[in-house]
Fold this protein.
Amino acid sequence: MPCTKEKLLIVDDEPAIRSLMTLLLTEIGYCVRCAQDGFSALRELRKEIPDILLSDLNMPSMSGFELLSVVRRRFPSIMVIAMSASFSGNEVPSGVAADAFYQKGSSMAALLHMIGALQFMERRGPLPSSFAAPLQIQWDERGTSGEACVTIACPECLRTFPQALDGSRGREQETNCTYCGSAIQCSVVEHPYRMPQRISQRRADAKISAQRASAVGD
Ligand SMILES: [Zn+2]
């Protein structure tokens, strides 16, 4: 089916969710691209700006929390749907820079309705001051084999670069992008809202699979 609707970028670390959502949304005319985490999403954003970004919140490397805060700063016109199995209900969780929230595992028909409704929603301006600074940089325990360092995504040029940690985790610091020189205020945090288990994710996947048939049949 040719692309007749909005351009979407789906960001999720679960391959099954990416392929399922791509299949479903492409079938009904959306133009879909995918990324597996925040960093690859930034690479996709540098190629082409989507109309709507759908992002999981809990991802390795660069979480949805970080990604959405960069997107809201740099591309306030992109409509954003945050997705997670760690929060319930329809309200955007506090601290998440998104226009809508989809609870993973709930009805796919509800997600389609949400995507459709975004075009009638007022486009937001730049981040409110509560999001303005600093960027939250995710501390990834798996990156600690050698020298402790984090990866920072520049909100200006969207490139990423490694930054050695000086033991100041949790404290605000300023650094400069190694590519464009922009000053970046950031603070290194433990993975926000780290999901204690992958089981709930798998449950959500299974539920989405089960619901897809009914959503397609609508
Ligand atoms: Zn930069």
DSSP finds six helices and ten strands in the chain. The radius of gyration is 17 Å. Residues 194-209, 212-218 have pLDDT under 50 and may be disordered.
